[in-house]
Amino acid sequence: MNAATLFGLCGAALVGIGLYGLITNPEPLRKILAFNLLGGGVFLLFGVIARRAAVAGLGGDPVPQAMVITAIVVAFAATAMAIALVQRLGDETGRASISSDSSGTGDGEEKS
Amino acid sequence: MSIASVFDVALVALILAIGASTILVRKAFAAVVMFVVYGLLLSIAWVRLHAVDVALTEAAIGGGMTGLLLLGAVARSRSVNVGGPWIGRPARLATCALCALVVAGLAIAMLHPPEVIPTLAPTVMESLPQSGLGNPVAGVLFVFRALDTLLEKVVLLLALLGVWSLAPDRAWGGMPGLHVYARSDPTLIFLAQLLPPVGIVFGIYMCWVGAKDPGGAFQGGTVLAAMWLLVIVAGLQKAPAIGRLWLRGLLVAGPVLFLAIGLAGWVFADAFLAYPAGYAKPLIVAVEAALTLSIAVALGMLAAGPPERAQQQ
């Protein structure tokens, strides 16, 4: 197994880990964190594809690399927006969870 | 096994362990710290994949800036009731199985690459000398896929507009409240006085060198933004009110110059975002310089968050 395949498997596992956190954790901030983790895995898969396409004395195909740079910046912009939304939600409702009230055991004192 | 492959295996194991602990650890603060470490480790993985430009971006924006944003958010949400109910064990097991399925699908795709791998690298290298740039990634960003880069700046501005629009009415046009630390200690103030001169020179260097070697407007802009935020967090300088004209001018300067040169391409080089022959490199460097400033201000204001206090006259 070469290095590119190893990092490819790492990226695949990171996508799984991020997805698990995104689904199971009820806190919005932790969901944003998990989504960024997932994104990092997807970017790594892209990097492996770029690395495999290396020709002409280059370390990798520059086109996917440039796209990943753009993607990282856009992911940051989306994260900033998401965090601002979560904070405003917290300011308005005083809650840091988006789980439904009926199953509430921890944050039941707030009525939405 | 060579030393390089031992290093790779150890790096992958570390990334996966840190990634998993980011999800599993109980405290949000610890999770964010883990996430920053994850970003830095991931940038080492990018170096191992021979993508130094991406490594710089990941370390600066993916780890650093996102980490700062999340730290600020965690610090603010302390007072809020955190820790809702987790989903039950059966649902968690089902999620686990689903995620394993996704991982297996991706892993199979990774283990069986196509016979002939499609690549645009030869085309890029063939056309790169016409632009006068030496860094193929910068060539893709500013020549071959310039529209992506232009729209990405617009996305940054749109995100900033979105963040600002979340401000309460009374604070509109006021100053962002950046609460990462409750009070600044002497060490932080000392660092905020010591680092910015070095950091500003380094940021400008990264922007300048991006035409030839790894680096560029994004990475340089992030370093400048980090220096600015350091000064604000240490309390040496207040975050500017979002209504300030100079602030808004700086924010749009880069994209507007990029767009103007792109439109001029229709007249002088018969295509939108095309550069006239022989002038490509000076134009690109000018655009990069303006973009670096705009990116620095946009990233800084995104990290500072929506305005909270009305502007004092």
Automatic annotation (TrEMBL), chain A:
**Keyword Transmembrane helix among record annotations:** yes
The UniProt entry's GO CC annotations, sorted and at most eight, read:
plasma membrane
Topology class, membrane: Multi-pass membrane protein
What taxonomic lineage is listed for the species of origin? Bacteria, Pseudomonadati, Pseudomonadota, Alphaproteobacteria, Hyphomicrobiales
Q: Which family does it belong to?
A: Belongs to the CPA3 antiporters (TC 2.A.63) subunit C family.
Instruction: List residues traversing the bilayer.
Output: 6-23, 35-54, 66-86
Protein name (record)? Na(+)/H(+) antiporter subunit C1
Compartments where located = Cell membrane
Give the organism, scientific name.
Tardiphaga robiniae
Superkingdom assignment = Bacteria
One Pfam match: Oxidored_q2
The question of whether Transmembrane helix is a record keyword is answered with: yes
Keyword annotations for this protein, in alphabetical order, are:
Cell membrane, Membrane, Transmembrane, Transmembrane helix
Q: Where is this region: Disordered?
A: 92-112
Automatic annotation (TrEMBL), chain B:
In terms of domain of life, where is this protein from?
A: Bacteria
Q: Span of the secretion signal?
A: none
For the keyword DNA damage, the answer is: no
Q: Which InterPro entries match?
A: CPA3_antiporter_subunitB, MnhB, MrpA_C/MbhD
- Compartments where located: Cell membrane
Q: Which residues form a coiled coil?
A: none
Q: What is this protein called?
A: Sodium:proton antiporter
Organism taxonomic ancestry: Bacteria, Pseudomonadati, Pseudomonadota, Alphaproteobacteria, Hyphomicrobiales
